[in-house]
Amino acid sequence: MTLANKLTLLRVALIPVFVLVFYLPYKWSYVASALIFSIAAATDWLDGYLARKLNQSTPFGAFLDPVADKLMVATALVLLVDLHDHRLFTIAAAIIIGREIAVSALREWMAELGQRGNVAVNYVGKIKTTAQMAAIIVLLAFDVEEFPVMETIGYILLYVAAALTLWTMVVYLRAAWPALNGEDSSPS
What we know:
The protein is mainly α. Helix content is 79%, strand content 0%. It has helices spanning 3-22, 28-53, 59-83, 87-112, 123-141, 148-180. α2 packs antiparallel against α3 and α5 packs antiparallel against α6. The protein is globular and about 55 Å long.
């Protein structure tokens, strides 16, 4: 069990703690849940860095890392949808969660064809992830009734993340279209 894999497992273990803290009936639960999410986001970066730097990449880590990321983000978005009862917010969260499921399935299918590289993470995807993480942290950290400006900032960041989510999904689908359309099923 590598250090990178332990950090990924920590991220998964933080999910129930995150949910519990989110629902605590105290003012500090906002900041505490944002802190837990921030720690999870930092471990996402750190476990990838350590796996590469220490040459500790493993098949288990390659599988679990994206699953842990998607579980934490989906959990946070579902909790925030409950807190922010707005249609546009719900639509943005559904776009982000739906895209993650669709692109994960697409990557898995392309990997079976030996073409996973055609749907690799790109630079816009990294910007999307940054906007998404920042939005979630802002929306978790502040009581929206006390800090309406922070709610607006969080919403803007989430809508930017949702737009970039759609954009990156289109990019991935266009790259995979020949294989999806049956035009090219040979490994690249």
